[in-house]
Amino acid sequence: MSTTTPSRGARAASGTADYLDQRTGIGTAVKGFARKIFPDHWSFLLGEIALYSFIVLLISGVFLTMFFVPSMGETHYEGPWAAMQGVEMSQAFASTLRLSFEVRGGLLMRQIHHWAALLFMASIVTHMMRVFFTGAFRKPREVNWLVGFVLLVLGLAAGFSGYSLPDDVLSGNGLRITDGVVKAIPIIGSYMSFFLFGGEFPGTDIIPRLFTVHILLVPGLILALIGLHLLFVVLHKHTQYPGPGRTDKNVVGYPLFPVYTAKAGGFFFVVFGVIALMAATMTINPVWNYGPYDPSPVSAGAQPDWYMLFLEGALRLMPGQTEYVIGGYTLSLNVLIPAMVVPGILFTAIAAYPFIEAAVTKDKREHHVLDRPRNAPFRTAFGVAFLTAFVVLALAGSNDLIATQFRMSINDITWAFRVLLFVGPAFAFWVTKRICLSLQRKDRELVLHGHETGRIVRFAHGEYIEVHKPLDEYEQWLLVSYDSPRPLEIEPAEDSRGVRRKGYRKDRLKQRVSRIFFEDRVEPVTPAELAAAHSHGEHDTIAPAPEHDQITSEVGSGPASETDTETRNR
Amino acid sequence: MSTQQNPGHGDEVVAHEGSAPATHFENPGLPPHRPRQADVNPAAAKRAERQIVILFAISIIGTIGTVVAWSLVPPGDTPSSMRLSNFLIGFGLFLSLMGIGTAAVHWAKTLMNDHEKVEMRHPQRSSDETRAGAVEVLKEGAADSGIGRRGVLKGAAVTSLALFPLAIAVPLIGDVGGSWDVSKLKHTIWRKGVKLTTDPAGRPIKAADVTIGSVFHVIPENLEEVDAHERLNEKAKAVVLLVRLDPKDLKEAEDRKGWSYDGIVAYSKICTHVGCPVALYEQQTHHLLCPCHQSTFDVADGAKVVFGPAKRPLPQLPIEVDDEGYLVAQSDFHEPVGPSFWERLK
């Protein structure tokens, strides 16, 4: 017997723990996970927002299923909403009205559900951007990138299937567009349309079918894949931003219990709270104003949810001349290209990028320290170009609103976007790459010469200099600790006896691709360069410093010329 | 700061180097820990604790508020009472959640130990020994099953596994498309003599009522007779837009001369792009604009496409006037309406 008797609570806790451990061996898991280290950074919250908004979707979604009737059976509305009194509508639409106006808190839950869905997609996309621009998808996380990619696609499917459920006139037109796109598929198009709608559009099957897809199939898959996604995070341990003390062999941060239990757990409530505030104050998708689906009316200025805008924009931009009749069969490229080929290219690019980059760099190392986006100029520029294309398409999906808001010709706007879709990404690529290289040069400059202090000192012999404060080793480490791969070097086409080498063409191609990635590069400062820069700092007069902008033009020559530049006022 | 140094006379930043500088810098290790206010000042810690308690209290008030709002402020039956109920319940929920969230985060950031800890990583790859062991057990298992020696058995197993999904897929696919009669896409319920009626009232339209420049949204008179669960399907194909133009503005193809009546033309309202209702008519230009993707059709010129992603003109419904002066159809459309599909011309 010990001298201090444990309290009743402590005894109960240890009894429960003992009971569980004897049956599950949970002690091992607790010991392994409770103090697991996670790095800290605001951008790591983006993925958390996605997870939490999904949980909010589950909670609010369960609430909604209690009252929603997924049926296209006809009924006449009798309820408190005067504008729809006696109108013939589907039970789906009628139950949505009841849910909004008669169930207390029902409207709030509907709006929570819709806002959470928008936030879910937005946080997935921004989380992917974070992962992309920091190179977090590199080995060993390529597979987890693919899992995340499938989650993105499933998120789109969940959003699309849920958007259509209330059976209002807007979502009905969305389904009609889907039907038109599906019909354009060569050979099997009309059969695919019958497959979806259980016969002709709209039929009476589509709402019950979408309901099953929306509340069972897609969320089930999302849940399973989130589990896999997080399992990989535990397995790989989280990536960390570069900084002093951080390496590819360690992980620096705070333990899961108690710091992340409180921070991440608390953040769930923050995310839920913000969604609740949005739902309380901002109306979303007021289907009671649109009315039930009817194939005849349509309203101008209708927009899909934001994550579908790029598809809508692609459909709007495609010129109609590209529909062809071949041997009596109709090939609607004016629909197939924007609705299938364009998203196909965009999504393939997302899924394949980690593998393409790995093939070009031939990098077989594990990476756990993230890249600063500036230190991977090609990747960053490519990502921004991709986003530019996405944004142009999304804006094109709102071209009618732009036209009415800014009183411009819809035809001019459409033409401008047609051009921008090609010019915009190219321009964005060039600008972003230049910005990255400039930032890298600025980093070099900072390491070599330190921070400006604004303090001007005059020496006895009359020379003026501005005092620069050297970086401390921690700040310096952030700026010098990156890789700058060189473009592939290959053997010449002919050997010393003038015989053409086998495989030269293939090598040459590899080299070309490698050059696209790495031709323009800025090397990190080496200790030798830093020492040289400081030795120039002796106050005896030296020649005026050459300019700093030659570095990228000297491919592979290294930045030796940089080191003799010393910014000082003479 | 007093530690500033004149670079001209300054010490080397990289002090630990030998005579030949290395090509890479050394990782300096974790920077020293900087204590927070609450770590060094008990008063600050006390203050933080008080703030956290207040945040939790706000949450409790929010939860009570939500329940009170739920019971005292029902949605009622006016838009403003609905909005009020939604706002009060939602704002209470917001406080209830946000209080907990901010309290927990504030607690973690101000009071919990913030010394960074380091954990080592291990390569993902399993060791050579483990790999060899894995191969070994797989070989053992394969040998136990005898699959290598029994080719027929392997074939039979693979074949049956590959075939069994058919037992589920065939019945499903058989019925999932309803009748699978895709030829329905080519016909509508317009027939000779079917009156053009207004949508949605179903009132027959007299030619004399259609003034120049006016637009009618039209459904066929026999839509009422269609089975209730087929009615939307038929309406989705049969809706028509009726416009009267000054006959001298109207350009008509030779083979369609008889399809209009005194400047009155009827076109399918279903866009030939992806099927939205083409509902916006511009009187001045005689253009019809689809609000979904902005395909623009010229009603004065056979509803040809003048802009946008559609290729084909809207199908025209041939019309005439019956003995009582009502507008009626001469026949069904002469081509399938709506979006293109592979076999539409077959």
Structural write-up:
The complex is a heterodimer of chains A (570) and B (346). In chain A, the strands form four sheets. Chain A has a two-stranded antiparallel sheet. In chain A, strands 2-3 form a two-stranded antiparallel sheet. In chain A, 41% of the residues are buried. In chain A, strand 5 and strand 6 form a beta hairpin. Chain A has 19 helices and eight strands. Chain A has helices at residues 8-24, 26-33, 45-65, 91-101, 106-133, 142-163, 169-183, 189-197, 206-236, 256-281, 287-290, 309-317, 333-361, 377-396, 399-406, 410-449, 473-480, 504-518, 527-535; strands spanning 37-38, 74-76, 88-90, 250-255, 323-326, 329-332, 451-458, 464-469. With 570 residues, chain A is mainly α. Chain B is an alpha+beta fold and 346 residues long. Among the domains of chain B are: 37-110; 185-329, Rieske [2Fe-2S] iron-sulphur domain (Rieske Iron-sulfur Protein, 3-layer Sandwich), CATH 2.102.10.10. Chain B contains seven helices and twelve strands. In chain B, helix 2 (42-72) packs antiparallel against helix 3. Chain B is extended and about 95 Å long. The N and C termini of chain B lie far apart (86 Å). The model of chain B is unreliable at 1-19 (pLDDT under 50). Chains A and B meet through helix 5, helix 7, helix 8, strand 4 and helix 10 of A and helix 3, strand 1 and helix 7 of B. Strand 4 of chain A pairs antiparallel with strand 1 (117-120) of chain B, so a sheet runs across the interface.
Secondary-structure blueprint of this entry?
The complex is a heterodimer of chains A (570) and B (346).
Chain A: H1 8-24, H2 26-33, E1 37-38, H3 45-65, E2 74-76, E3 88-90, H4 91-101, H5 106-133, H6 142-163, H7 169-183, H8 189-197, H9 206-236, E4 250-255, H10 256-281, H11 287-290, H12 309-317, E5 323-326, E6 329-332, H13 333-361, H14 377-396, H15 399-406, H16 410-449, E7 451-458, E8 464-469, H17 473-480, H18 504-518, H19 527-535
Chain B: H1 37-40, H2 42-72, H3 79-110, E1 117-120, H4 128-145, H5 151-163, H6 166-176, E2 196-198, E3 215-220, H7 228-238, E4 240-244, E5 264-268, E6 280-282, E7 287-289, E8 296-298, E9 304-307, E10 316-317, E11 319-321, E12 327-329
Antiparallel strand pairs in B: 2-3, 3-4, 4-5, 5-10, 6-7, 7-8, 8-9, 11-12
Helix pairs in contact in B: 2-3
